[in-house]
């Protein structure tokens, strides 16, 4: 009997040790609230909506210690809408992220699957739209630069270097997976981050070639791509600086589209020969107390387009203000207001103001206000 007890104890210790070498974590976030908009298609609206600030997700992530500072890692992440229980991306289970790879403490991380591009990874944390848990209402018009991660890169391989003296680099390539069409719907991107002390700087580039959204390439028709194009290029630089309880950020992005055609999820149903956007953002976060925080941003977006219907230079001014109160480490409540003024493209599809996540205004002005709560697990 004594030997059995000792044997059982030894097995239990071994099981704990084996478990300590690997882990699987279930996680998620739920965000819902009431939104008022003064003008959506010419009418005011009161709506209960999800993900006005943070994308609602649940997922699994794991790591296995393979020895010699090497780990096998994976992530499977689903996006959903709590209002109706539907998935965000049709015909997918893990539409937000799905990848597997290897991570080495000294040599960096290599992953394969459906992933964020380096624009999202490096510039996203600087913008108000993607800082921390995110703020979708604060995205640049149409999320034209994908800083707010409207789409992901399928069939991609990504490498992230270890951090060396504050500098981290990453690169991604998304395969077309098309026989005889190597460049048809492929993507490549790279980014750099320098973070030391109170300073955080970043730069990134993304290019999509022949984005036909054919379902087998780098970008899928399930994604929220507003301007499917023969070629899309995004480049940007930015940084933020921490001063006591405040963090001040500056960001510039430049997006170029060639030969766009409206897709299934496009909000602008008009083709363009050329289309480009320059986004200039300044933002600030201020921790009033450990549980109360304030945030705000001003964005100026300057666009230009040409096509069969003519050309114009639309412009957008957008102001976002937000207050957040943490009820616990997992749960918070918030209130936010957004004002957008659009002009310079009267008579075109860009005539009305268009705050991200809402329907287009019938005028050049749109105001939205929301109160809601988020909880994480």
What structural class do helix, strand and pairing data support? mainly beta
- Can you tell me the CATH superfamily? Porin
Instruction: Assign the CATH class.
Output: Mainly Beta
Which CATH architecture?
Beta Barrel
Shape: globular
- By DSSP, the count of extended strands is 18
**pLDDT below 50 for ≥5 consecutive residues: which ranges?**
1-20
Average of the residue pLDDT scores: 92
The CATH topology label is: Porin
Backbone CA Rg: 22 Å
Terminus-to-terminus distance? 43 Å
| Helix-strand string | HEEEEEEHEEEEEEEEEEEE
**Strand percentage:** over 45%
The figure for the number of domains is 1
Helix run count: 2
Give the strand order of the largest sheet, numbering strands 1, 2, ... along the chain: 1-3-4-5-6-7-8-9-10-11-12-13-14-16-17-18
What summary fits the major beta sheet? 16 strands, antiparallel, barrel
Q: Please estimate the helix content.
A: under 10%
Keywords: Cell outer membrane, Ion transport, Membrane, Porin, Signal, Transmembrane, Transmembrane beta strand, Transport
Subcellular location: Cell outer membrane
Organism: Paraburkholderia edwinii
Membrane topology: Multi-pass membrane protein
């Amino acid at each position: 009997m004594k030997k059995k007890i000792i044997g059982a104890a030894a097995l239990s210790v071994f099981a704990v040790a084996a478990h300590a070498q690997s882990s699987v974590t279930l996680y998620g976030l739920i965000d819902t609230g009431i939104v008022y908009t003064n003008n959506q298609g010419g009418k005011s609206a009161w709506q209960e909506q999800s993900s006005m600030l943070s994308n609602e997700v649940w997922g699994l992530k794991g790591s296995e210690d393979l020895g010699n500072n090497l780990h096998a890692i994976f992530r499977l992440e689903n996006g959903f809408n709590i209002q109706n229980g539907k998935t965000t991306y049709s015909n997918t289970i893990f539409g937000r992220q799905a990848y597997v790879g290897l991570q080495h403490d000294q040599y960096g991380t290599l992953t394969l699957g459906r992933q964020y591009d380096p624009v999202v990874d490096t510039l996203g944390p600087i913008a108000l739209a993607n800082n921390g848990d995110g703020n979708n209402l604060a995205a640049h018009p149409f999320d034209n630069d994908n800083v707010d991660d409207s789409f992901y890169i399928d069939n991609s391989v990504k490498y992230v270097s270890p951090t060396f003296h504050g500098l981290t680099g990453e690169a991604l390539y998304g395969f077309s997976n098309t026989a005889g069409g190597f460049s048809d719907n492929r993507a490549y991107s790279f980014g750099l981050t320098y973070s030391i002390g109170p300073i955080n700087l970043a730069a990134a580039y993304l290019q999509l070639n022949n984005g036909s959204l054919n379902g087998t390439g780098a970008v899928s028709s399930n994604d929220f791509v507003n301007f499917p194009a023969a070629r899309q290029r995004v480049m940007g630089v930015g940084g933020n600086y921490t001063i006591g309880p405040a963090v001040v950020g500056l960001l510039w992005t430049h997006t170029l589209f060639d030969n766009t055609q409206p897709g299934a999820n496009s909000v602008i149903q008009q083709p363009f020969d050329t289309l480009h956007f320059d986004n200039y953002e300044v933002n600030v976060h201020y921790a009033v107390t450990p549980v109360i925080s304030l945030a705000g941003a001003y964005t100026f977006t300057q666009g230009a387009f040409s096509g069969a219907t003519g050309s114009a230079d639309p412009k957008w001014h957008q102001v976002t203000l937000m207050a957040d109160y943490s009820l616990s480490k997992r749960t918070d409540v918030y209130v936010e207001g957004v004002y957008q003024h659009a002009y310079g493209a009267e008579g075109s599809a860009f005539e009305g103001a268009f705050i991200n996540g809402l329907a287009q205004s019938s005028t050049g002005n749109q105001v939205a206000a929301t109160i809601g709560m988020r909880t994480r697990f």
